Amino acid sequence: MEEKNNKELQESLKSEYESQMNFMKKEYEDQINILKNKNYELETDFIQMKAENELTECLNKILVFSNKKQMIWKLK
Predict the structure, then answer these.
(1) pLDDT tens-digit profile of 18-71?
(2) 44, 59, 68 from 63: Cα distances, Å
């Protein structure tokens, strides 16, 4: 009888342990996915910022060229 109770207790503890491990594994995987998404967002933001900086540089060069051109026309 006592052996049967011990066996049931062991099975119950094993089941509880497995349940907790599965829960922790799911939480861990969720956190990993959140971090991956945040990393993707940061990379996307960085790429967008870099493109905006390059566009700004281009526009500045165009403005400088345009100003130089206007100055030359005024001198003529």
Answers:
(1) 999 999 999 999 999 999 999 999 999 999 999 999 999 999 999 998 888 887
(2) 28, 6, 9
Residue 44 CA, distance from chain mean position: 9
- pTM of whole model > 0.90? no
Could you give the CA distance from residue 8 to residue 4 in angstroms, rounded to a whole number?
A: 6
DSSP element (H, E) containing 49: helix 2-75
Token reading at 70: 């206007």
Question: Can you tell me which residue has the tokens 């861990």?
Answer: 28
CA 66 to CA 54: how far, in whole Å? 18
**Encoded tokens for 41:** 């967002």
